[in-house]
Amino acid sequence: MAKQQISFYLLPINPIYGEVVTNIYLSLDNGRSDAIDALNALKQNERDRITDLLTRLATTPNYRSKQITEKIKGYSYGEMTPHPHRFYFFRACRNNVIIFAYALKKKDSFKDVFYRDLDRKRATYAAEFEERFGQAN
Q1: From the CB of residue 83, how many other CB atoms can be counted at a distance below 10 Å?
Q2: pTM
Q3: Conformation bin of residue 77: beta by default, left when phi > 0, alpha when psi is -120 to 50
Q4: How large is the average pLDDT for residues 54-81?
Q5: Which pLDDT score, from 0 to 100, does residue 110 have?
Q6: Is the peptide bond before 82 cis (omega within 30 degrees of 0)?
Q7: Residue 120's CB: how many other CB atoms inside 10 A?
Q8: Are the C-beta atoms of residues 47 and 17 closer than 8 Å to each other?
């Protein structure tokens, strides 16, 4: 089995929206990202809605939204919930948000095992991000 190659893609924010106060990264496994694949598959109006949410998060100090939960109870990560989409993220090294997972949730709740699996994934990405960017920020 091939070794997992983790990298991070800094989401570019157009300067017309203002100064970036929070960097937003997407995690990549072997050059692929579930979040990017999901965004690319969406209709333009849904993509615009999510892009707007990410842009506001990046350019507004201490941005708060009903669609963003900073910490899921019992876990070290949060979720963005532009229904029915779920983007899971954590914060690291000061002003960085790392989106590390995506899920489509049409109804009901995910089981706890889903969130535990995400937490293991988050720990892997967090360690890798800290190793690469911990000193730079």
Answers
A1: 9
A2: 0.89
A3: beta
A4: 93
A5: 85
A6: no
A7: 8
A8: no
